[in-house]
Write a sequence for this structure.
């Protein structure tokens, strides 16, 4: 069996203040969506940074499509992995279309200009995010949700076999959350490797094939979604009681953090 | 003496604090004035009047006459040191009329020091200054005589220059950038007296920066260069930079004159010598050829 | 609000640059044919006297060429620093290199170095500042932009204080010379200096334009740009050096001529868009034209008197800067 698309073996990184991640093992295969979950400060964004080559791991290794990441030039990394960041700066002097076109950078040689094909790709990406009519609007005037969709379109236009999404739905309306992840699932179905950092456990339950739970910079649990998103695992990782249920009608896993009232109803004590 | 001066300073300050707005009462100068002289022209005049002994302190730019070389300093006229003024027991401060140093002067006035401002940018102003200084030190007669002599010699120069075809003169006071003297400066007046016309007679200021091309276009026949530069070209030879413009009438005729600024920068008792010097440069046919000494620095000019 | 601005392609680039060249040529012509002396169009037709020819060719032409290359250098430095600091309100003097140049020149003046060697002394001061800045702002092997900015501000303050000290201690003649050295003015550049500044400007325009796409990506932040494949560390260091060298050259020969580095890239950005592939070379051309015209204004405004060109650029640039600031605060965007 060939090596999975993204592989982290014993990867560790520490920031100056001591936060970071200790040796993490992680795999994302082509055609699957892996959810990266955990409370704030667990190290999820750090891991995304390591996988995109922005942070060099202090320990362990990261491999992209069989090649050691440390040995790749940045532009080669950018042709393999695209990142949808948590936030896009709002003071960009560009229109939405120009921002999306930035995603074509890894594919343009030296002094080349964007071709018609690049333009079409960019327009298509915007359309897939339902943002076509934003094309000529300056990014500075868009709402946070619209900017996020533009950022996702840019990553899409980057046309990479792997995609990293860092909390891509923070500012999105429910409708766009669903649209985005339906789109992502379609991408996975066509063979891309996808890692998504998520806060919304229900989205993770619905869309991810596998999930990885991080807590305190360490790998807590990993595996197929249904098996890993359990009451025990989630309660331990998030530090509060979390029920997992199956909705018979939709067949979806439903994740419910228990409120005070719910706990009383169930007769649980704090 | 120091303690006395210090006590006096303290007293003066207290007095000033107590009656902030009141001006010192004296209209008449003290009988044996102790003069602080910030104006180079006034220093020369006072020595010429025989009142050099009254000068107890001088400003930075007072470099002549050589007798004053050892006199204690007060700082520049823009910022005379009030401490030094009081410490040296100066009761009258003689300075150049200008906008600089207003604050320091007003403070000194409040402390009881009399401030006399002189304007020597014109001949008339210089002659008036001589009279004023004479009155200050009780040498009115000597002052009147000096003024009369100066007037007479200036008139003699004017008379001798009368009727001569005026020559176009450029007076350069600074290079890189090019600064020239225009109407309202004593240098301009000297040129006119000597039968010359300033090529920049339309300049709206006594001293201003001008563009090189304007100067070239006006084709001065004589260049009087009193800019402060290191020692260099001798008379008649176009010094380095002017040599680049061989078509300039003054350069072509060998009439670019580098005169040490000390000779011409301080109008005062030497005004007649200055007029005669300029006249030799502008109208040599009537006043004789320029002398070697015309271009050199004055004795004791360097401090 | 919609901006219909097609993404940059080769045709638009060439067209825009051609326009820029045309504008520069027009400005150069104006600079040579107009001035304090009544020499120009009319006299050209009827033949020139030797003095008039000297004025056109030996006084105006070198000066106009000097203004052009210095204006280009300053505008390109502005583009570089605005890209590096990710802020369109940055100007070439913000990072302290100009302070080093000014201090070097002032010290040389006071020590008595011959006039011809002053720019070299100033350049030396600028290089010292550049080296110091680079050393101090390199954190863990990377050039940290925030540290650079803060260190630069400190450099500026320190050199300004040192210059004030020199002025306080200077004699009258020295003081006059120092003050007029510090005021920005267009000098008559000798052949060597002219070629050096011109060469540096052309090289910088090509470099910044060539790195244009990467510079565009830099607007997404260091991480965002890196994730697009930009070698951020190397690019930032290179852009810093380019900008600093251009500033050093300009200030060493011309003193502090303000607002060119700030205003020109701004105007070009509004007219031609933020794409650095066009912004860089076009700003160079526009900067050249701007300073030529400003210098012409300095020569004409109060003829035969001459204003320091820094005064003209400030009169034009100051209000412009304020207008831009207000518009940004009102949220109308740049």
């Amino acid at each position: 069996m060939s090596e999975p698309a993204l592989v982290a073996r014993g990867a560790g990184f520490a920031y100056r203040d001591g936060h970071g991640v200790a040796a993490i093992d992680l795999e994302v295969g082509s055609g699957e969506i892996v959810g990266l979950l955990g409370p704030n400060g667990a190290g999820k964004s750090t891991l995304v940074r390591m996988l995109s080559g922005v942070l060099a791991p202090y320990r362990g290794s990261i491999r992209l499509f069989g090649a050691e990441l440390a040995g790749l030039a940045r532009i080669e990394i950018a042709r393999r992995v695209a990142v949808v960041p948590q936030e896009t700066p709002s003071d960009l002097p560009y229109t939405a279309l120009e921002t999306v076109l930035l995603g074509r950078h890894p594919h343009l040689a030296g002094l080349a200009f964007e071709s018609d094909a690049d333009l079409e790709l960019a327009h298509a990406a915007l359309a897939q995010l339902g943002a076509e009519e934003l094309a000529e609007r300056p990014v500075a005037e868009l709402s946070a949700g619209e900017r996020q969709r533009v950022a996702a379109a840019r990553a899409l236009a980057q046309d990479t076999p792997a995609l990293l999404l860092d909390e891509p739905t923070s500012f999105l309306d429910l409708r766009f959350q669903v649209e985005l992840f339906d789109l992502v699932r379609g991408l996975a179905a066509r063979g891309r490797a996808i890692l998504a950092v998520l806060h919304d456990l229900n989205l993770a339950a619905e869309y991810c094939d596998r999930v990885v739970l991080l807590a305190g910079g360490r790998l807590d649990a990993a595996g197929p979604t249904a098996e890993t998103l359990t009451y025990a695992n989630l309660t331990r990782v998030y530090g509060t009681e979390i029920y997992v249920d199956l909705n018979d009608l939709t067949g979806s896993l439903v994740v419910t953090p228990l409120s005070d009232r719910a706990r009383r109803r169930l007769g649980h004590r704090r | 003496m120091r303690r006395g001066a210090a006590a006096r300073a303290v007293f003066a300050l207290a007095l000033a604090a107590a009656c902030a707005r009141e001006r010192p009462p004296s209209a008449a100068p003290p009988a044996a004035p102790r003069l602080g002289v910030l104006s180079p022209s006034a220093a020369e005049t006072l020595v010429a009047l025989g009142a050099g002994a009254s000068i107890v302190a001088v400003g930075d730019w007072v470099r002549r006459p050589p007798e004053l070389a050892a006199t204690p300093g007060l700082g520049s006229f823009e910022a005379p040191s009030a401490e030094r003024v009081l410490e040296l027991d100066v009761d009258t401060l003689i300075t150049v009329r200008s906008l600089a140093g207003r604050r320091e002067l007003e403070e000194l006035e409040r402390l009881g020091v009399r401030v006399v401002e002189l304007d020597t940018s014109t001949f008339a102003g210089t002659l008036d200054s001589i009279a004023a200084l004479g009155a200050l030190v009780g040498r009115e007669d000597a002052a009147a005589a000096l003024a009369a002599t100066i007037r007479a010699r200036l008139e003699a120069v004017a008379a001798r220059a009368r009727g001569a075809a005026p020559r176009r003169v450029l007076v350069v006071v600074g290079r890189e950038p090019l600064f020239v003297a225009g109407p309202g400066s004593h240098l301009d007046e000297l040129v006119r007296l000597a039968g010359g016309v300033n090529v920049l007679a339309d300049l709206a200021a006594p001293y201003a920066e001008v563009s090189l091309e304007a100067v070239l276009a006006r084709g001065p026949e004589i260049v009087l260069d009193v800019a402060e530069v290191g020692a260099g070209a001798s008379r008649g030879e176009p010094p380095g930079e002017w040599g680049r413009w061989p078509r300039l009438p003054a350069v072509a005729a060998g009439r670019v004159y580098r005169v040490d600024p000390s000779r011409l920068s301080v109008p005062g008792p030497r005004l007649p010598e200055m007029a005669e010097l300029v006249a030799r440069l502008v109208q040599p046919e009537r006043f004789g050829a320029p002398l070697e000494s015309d271009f050199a620095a004055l004795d004791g000019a360097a401090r | 609000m919609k901006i219909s601005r097609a993404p940059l392609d080769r045709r638009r680039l060439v067209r825009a640059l051609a326009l820029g060249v045309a504008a520069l040529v027009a400005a150069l012509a104006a600079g040579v044919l107009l001035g304090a002396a009544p020499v120009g169009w009319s006299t050209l037709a009827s033949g020139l006297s030797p003095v008039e020819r000297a004025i056109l060719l030996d006084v105006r032409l070198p000066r106009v060429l000097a203004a052009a290359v210095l204006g280009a250098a300053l505008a390109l430095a502005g583009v570089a620093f605005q890209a590096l600091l990710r802020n369109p309100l940055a100007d070439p003097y913000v990072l302290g290199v100009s302070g080093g140049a000014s201090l070097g020149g002032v010290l040389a003046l006071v020590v008595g170095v011959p006039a011809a060697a002053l720019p070299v002394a100033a350049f030396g001061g600028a290089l010292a500042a550049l080296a110091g800045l680079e050393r101090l702002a390199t954190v863990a092997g990377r050039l940290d932009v925030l540290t650079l900015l803060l260190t630069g501000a400190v450099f500026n303050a320190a050199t300004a204080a040192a210059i004030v000290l020199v002025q306080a201690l200077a004699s009258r003649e020295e003081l006059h010379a120092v003050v007029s050295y510090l005021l920005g003015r267009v000098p008559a550049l000798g052949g060597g200096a002219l070629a050096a500044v011109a060469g540096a400007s052309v090289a910088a325009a090509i470099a910044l334009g060539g790195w244009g796409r990467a510079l565009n990506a830099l607007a997404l932040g260091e991480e965002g740009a890196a994730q697009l494949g930009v070698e951020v560390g190397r690019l930032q260091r290179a852009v810093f050096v380019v900008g600093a060298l251009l500033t050093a050259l300009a200030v060493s020969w011309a003193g502090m001529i303000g607002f060119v580095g700030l205003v020109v890239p701004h105007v070009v950005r509004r007219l031609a868009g933020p794409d650095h592939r066009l912004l860089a070379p076009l700003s160079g051309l526009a900067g050249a034209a701007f300073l030529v015209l400003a210098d012409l204004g300095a020569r004409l405004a109060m003829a035969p008197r001459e204003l320091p060109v820094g005064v003209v650029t400030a009169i034009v640039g100051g209000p412009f800067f304020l207008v831009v600031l207000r518009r940004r605060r009102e949220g109308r965007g740049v």
